[in-house]
Write the structure tokens for this entry.
Amino acid sequence: MFNPAENRRAAGTQFFTSLQHRDYRWLWFANISAGSAHWALIVARGWLVYDLTDSSTLVGIVTFAAMIPNFLISPFAGLLADRVDRRRLLAWTFGLNAAHNLLLAAITIAGLIEVWHLVVLSLINGSARAAQMPASGSLLPNLVPQRHLLNAIALSSATIHGTRLLGPLLIAPLLIPVGPGGAFVLCTVLYCLGLVQVSLIRMTSTGIVESEKGILKNLLAGLSYVYHHHLLLPLMVLIVAHCALTMSFESLLPSLAREKFEADGAGFSYMMMAVGAGALVGVMSLTKVQTDNVRGRLLLVAGIISGVAPIALAVSPNLPLALLAAAAMGASQGIYMTLFTTIVQSIVPDGIRGRVTSISNLHIGGFMAGTNLLNGSLADIVGVQTILVVTGVAFLVIIPVSFANLHVRRVYFVGATSMATAS
């Protein structure tokens, strides 16, 4: 007999299937804590730089300093994630970021903060994050069975993107009456909470590093795997273009908030929250998608919306419409990145998963760092709105170009998971 209440409960449990696994549950909570701290830090640090200097260029430089370790550190971090206990490595990264935020809070509250301090500390923060991502990404598939992998990655992506909402929401009340120093204290507390949660994970996980091959060959193993894989290579090119053109906006929003909407730090925080809210809704919707060809078509549709949404943000006449555009950016980006991550984790053997994850972070982080720096510099010359329109249009041009590759075209119409399994 049809029971609406039971059907609603069953549908609700589909969203959170992976959380029935204890160790994954602790990793998920740890990622919520760390992700909230990360996005709160981006907002507080970005606004602090802009408030001190009134320069988008300097916001771009500080953002570049936080992101460039993804290019410089990621290969070594990936090798480390395959060589040592991934859980312990993750704990060390949380501890380092907690110490970083504590120091940042102390010098900010003391009134000693200068831009060069923020550049140096951003490098430290970025280095810890560059090691955190391959450790967490390569540990995750060991905590759930294969049949729950997409759900686990979708829920994990929900923490990454959804904390764009939670982190700025937590610090928004602090930015005006207390200032960025109070926000940095909160970030410290969140990283400490994440450290406790990681310590409760029981599963140990390491990769396979062949000592007889030497450090260089082991480092290059992940690069070689990606560059010689008929599906991963074109997808990597596509995802790099997506991240560089549609997701490198952190250095632009402070200026947009002040100059166009006259909303200052609160407006910046609200736009980041809208991106996070949209991402959370988008990623959570993936947990209920069961058909492979639907997932593939969602990848295509999400890519198109990712190009349109920055243009909509640029032409928005007021803050409420800008928030809707920002939410569309978050939803499309969250779906796009989650589907890409699922393909990667479905294909890659566990022995080199850390290195391949780090290669992905290297490409994505390196290009995002460079693009944020370029965007911040150009914003002071041509304006934020022009950059948002140009980058959005550029990615919309890339989408039809991607159809030229047979494997990408088949992903769109056969399905992401089916293609990954076949590969």
In short: The chain has one domain: 19-203+218-422.
